[in-house]
Design goal:
The complex is a heterodimer.
Chain A: H1 2-12, H2 17-25, H3 31-38, E1 45-47, E2 67-74, E3 77-84, H4 95-111, E4 115-121, H5 130-146, E5 152-161, H6 166-169, E6 173-177, E7 182-184, H7 188-195, H8 201-205, H9 207-214, E8 219-221, H10 224-238, H11 254-257, H12 268-275, E9 277-283, E10 291-298, E11 301-308, H13 319-334, E12 339-345, H14 352-356, H15 359-372, E13 377-386, H16 387-392, E14 402-405, E15 410-412, H17 416-423, H18 425-430, H19 434-449, H20 453-457, E16 463-464, H21 470-480
Parallel strand pairs in A: 3-4, 4-5, 5-6, 5-7, 6-8, 11-12, 12-13, 13-14, 13-15, 14-16
Antiparallel strand pairs in A: 1-2, 2-3, 9-10, 10-11
Helix pairs in contact in A: 4-5, 13-15, 17-19
Chain B: E1 5-10, E2 13-18, H1 30-33, E3 36-39, E4 45-50, E5 57-58, E6 63-69, E7 72-77, E8 82-86, E9 94-95, E10 102-106
Antiparallel strand pairs in B: 1-2, 3-10, 4-6, 4-9, 5-8, 6-7, 8-10
Classes of the chains: A alpha/beta, B mainly beta.
Chain lengths: ~500, ~110
């Protein structure tokens, strides 16, 4: 018995007292402290505590081989997890370390439960040579096998460089912490040697960069504690059903939130809040803010919400918005989460740079994601629904089950001004006062076509509803669709325009 | 003749310096270039209204101009607390997304 206790005590001390003190002095938590903060108290069941490195060079010096693995509960839900331990050889990945991770990945597959990885590793363990690469490969392979089967979550709480960065990138949700997380393929030193460019780790692969620009991170936190709390919230949100919570309404009706003047912006999240129970959980909050992707509940049931954000870039679609939205739609479809789309899209963002960087290829992802999705899909057109933006974002034509429009909706090929300029080009050019004729023709076109009734007359939308009816109609549509039967096309898999 | 130029990015705005045909050294002083911010619209459009005049004090996030783009009036906000130093753009002007429309001196 004494031997067991001694061995356990040693394992609990990770890389030793000095190494732990060093971390604490830097204000960083240890791998075990992170697990404690993440999971329900006393729920952690550790696996493979006594695994050691197989490499002769470092035997007996690698408690747990630099990674803590096991199962636990978060808000009562079973999860599998691993937490890399920087105090043991810098959390470097050797073959034993890798096999501990793949073992919990296999377990997550069997248990059909979410898997959470806390990443804090210097990268491949040089002593393990090509075995370390094999280990990474096996992890990536299992990441891919698990995709769409169980939610995969990565929390970056330290360096995550080179090949190591690909595992989080293959998972569904990446959390990063300001000043602590560092993720890149080639670090500043290599970039300086090869390219002659100087850049700091933070500027190259810090949390802000990944959350705002690169889009690798879906959640941004100021501290480790906050990030782990965010993970708990997400796990709690992702469960299928919860008791309906009282809505946190702003006491403003949707009618009041959306300005009468079609040119005036508003925060679409205020509309979302009016439609859901309690709070929403935004994914990629800081990335491509021109589109909002969030989880929320309607009558206690989980729903994925996609909404154009007129507050940023007028809600126009660009490459980043396409990536964000299509990825979110595919996540929802994989896990049978119904999709509610709130449309107010002026179209795709015009520009030479955007076109040259593949605006068409990126935009196609939205069509593909919606068209392939078989989950219940309900769309509410709030205001603008122009051109390809209208078609791709959950229109009837691309597979939505119910499409409603508010009376303020404008469903047309292009904006009244541009349309009038094209259709009445000759008349405008021939008139004495071109500006006046153009204004008249624009007003005419707006009255005639920039409304929901042209589309409603053709059955392209199912109904025009009053803003005050929106919540109830959406809730009842989702309820009706809960047993929706839709078989995907019989094929191995499609080729998504990535 | 081949046009030689150097490209300098300051606070998100790209400036081009043409006619450079010999090696030059650029010394960047931290305190001399961090003060003035050129505010660029996020998208190309037409300036509808400039809400501030030269010399006005502004808070971070305060609305300073309205841009008509993508069928919408977009508010351009101040990226920092400061004072309006110069307004190169005029109401009714068509502007590009990398064009500084208002210069703010950070305080």
């Amino acid at each position: 018995m004494n031997t067991l206790k001694e061995k356990r005590d040693k394992a609990m001390m990770l890389g030793g007292e000095a190494a732990i003190d060093k971390r604490h002095a830097k204000g960083l938590l240890t791998a075990r402290e992170r697990i404690e903060l993440l999971v329900d108290k006393g729920s952690f069941h550790e696996l493979d505590m006594f695994v050691q490195s197989l490499s002769n060079d470092s035997s007996n010096e690698t408690p747990g081989d630099g990674v803590i693995t096991g199962t636990a509960k978060i808000c009562g839900h079973t999860v599998c997890l691993f937490s890399q331990d920087f105090t043991v050889l810098g959390g470097s990945l050797g073959i034993s370390h890798a096999h501990k991770i793949t073992k919990v990945q296999d377990l997550a597959m069997k248990l059909r439960c979410p898997i959470i990885g806390i990443n804090d590793s210097g990268g491949a363990r040089i002593q393990d040579g090509v075995d370390a690469l094999a280990g990474y490969g096996e992890i990536f392979f299992k990441n891919t096998q698990l995709s769409g089967v169980v939610p995969q979550i990565s929390v970056i709480l330290g360096p995550c460089a080179g090949g190591a960065a690909y595992s989080p990138a293959l998972t569904d949700f990446v959390f990063m912490v300001d000043g602590i997380s560092k993720m890149f393929l080639t670090g500043p030193a290599v970039i300086e040697t090869v390219m002659g460019e100087t850049i700091s780790q933070e500027e190259l692969g810090g949390a802000k960069v990944h959350a705002e620009k690169a889009g690798t991170a879906h959640f941004f936190a100021e501290s480790e504690k906050e990030a782990l709390e965010q993970v708990r919230n997400l796990i709690d949100m992702l469960k299928d059903e919860a008791k309906p919570k009282p809505a946190k309404r702003s006491h403003k009706s949707i009618d009041e939130i959306i300005p009468k003047d079609g040119k005036m912006p508003y925060d679409v999240r205020d509309v979302v809040t009016e439609l859901v129970d309690g709070e929403i959980l935004e994914v990629h909050k800081l990335f491509a803010p021109n589109i909002v992707c969030a989880f929320g509940r309607i009558d206690g049931k989980l729903v994925g919400i996609v909404a154009n954000q007129p507050y940023y870039l007028a809600g126009a679609l660009d490459a980043d918005a396409a990536d964000k939205c299509s990825r979110f739609v595919r996540y929802c479809d994989s896990f049978n989460i119904p999709i509610l789309t709130l449309m107010d899209v002026p179209g795709c963002l015009p520009g030479v740079d955007g076109e040259l960087r593949g605006a068409v290829r990126h935009g196609a992802k939205i069509f593909y994601a919606y068209a392939e999705a078989t989950v219940p899909m309900v769309t509410l057109i709030l205001r603008k629904a122009y051109g390809g933006g209208y078609v791709c974002l959950g229109s009837k034509h691309i597979g939505a089950d119910f499409v409603y429009a508010l009376p303020s909706a404008e469903i047309a090929v292009m904006g009244p001004e541009s349309a009038a300029s094209v259709i009445y080009r000759k008349e405008i050019a021939a008139s004495e006062d071109a500006e006046k004729t153009k204004a008249e023709k624009t007003a005419e076109y707006r009255k005639e076509y920039a409304n929901p009734y042209v589309a409603a007359a053709k059955g392209y939308i199912d109904d025009v509803i009053a803003p005050s009816e929106a919540r109830e109609r959406i809730a009842s549509a989702l309820d009706m669709l809960k047993d929706k039967q839709s078989q995907p096309v019989n094929r191995k898999h499609g080729v998504m325009p990535v | 003749m081949k046009q030689e130029y150097i490209e300098i990015e300051i606070d998100g705005t790209t400036y081009f310096t043409y006619g450079v045909n010999e090696e030059i050294e650029v010394e960047i002083k931290e305190d001399s270039c961090s003060d003035i911010i050129g505010v660029c619209p996020p998208i190309a459009g037409i300036i509808v209204e400039i809400l501030k005049k030269e010399g006005d004090k502004v808070k971070k996030g305060e609305k300073i101009a309205i841009l008509d783009a993508m069928k919408m009036h977009n508010f351009i906000t101040s990226p920092a607390k400061g004072r309006i130093l110069n307004i190169p753009a005029r109401e009714g002007q068509r502007v590009k997304s990398n064009e500084a429309i208002i210069e703010i001196e950070e305080v």
